[in-house]
Amino acid sequence: KIFSIMFLTxxxxxxxxxxxxxxxxxxxxxxxxxxxxxxxxxxxxxxMDGNSxxxxxxxxxxxxxxxxxxxxxxxxxTSMNKKELKNNLLQPGMLVDVTYDxxxxxxxxxxxxxxxxIHIKEQKEDIVGLYRKVVADLYEVDPGLNDDIEILAFxxxxxxxxxxxxxxxxxxxxxxxxxxxxxxxxxxxLCEQGYINKDKLYFEKGLLFTIRDTLISGDRFTFNxxxxxxxxxxxxxxxxxxxxxxxGWDYRIGAEMIS
Length: 259
Known about the structure:
259 residues, alpha+beta, seven-stranded mixed β-sheet
């Protein structure tokens, strides 16, 4: 009996010691800082405004409205060879990976939470910048067509050199520039929605900009662009040639027409 009692006592002491040691291990792991979860999003730089950057998602299956405003102040930016860069070296057209905490503010454009790093992957084409210039030039010619407008509408259905989300970014940026409502729509869609009077062929409160282009071939492509207010009020840039220069994309107008 004495032997049995001593054996059981030793067994219990061993068990308590093992449990105690296991608890200490758990406590030590709990005291360590858990890894912060991160998500990496592949995007393209659409515009720079000081430390504010407009990005368009380049992820597969992206929603056409997936554009983001982010602030890059005090954010680490690395180059393709992993060297740290200054903020002002980001340029429109760059493909960048943004690492953040996975939270998104559902605004328009959306906001990304707690960005830890931006990595530049490569320099792509800034066709959004080119078409912003084309629209600005069209807006300036025949200014009488612009009287009392409140809406800028865009038919980009035949634009081949922009993704759908880049088209959204372009429309948003132009609306921001002119402080007007900016929408997408074809002539027929705008008629159905009541913006354009189809019988009178008149866009009372706005202009319709239409761009049609060919795919980039080498360092150039062709396009036509027009702004339309009515059946008797329109201006056209026809047979335009876009060409890439050392400073980005520029274009030459083949012919200008007025209606």
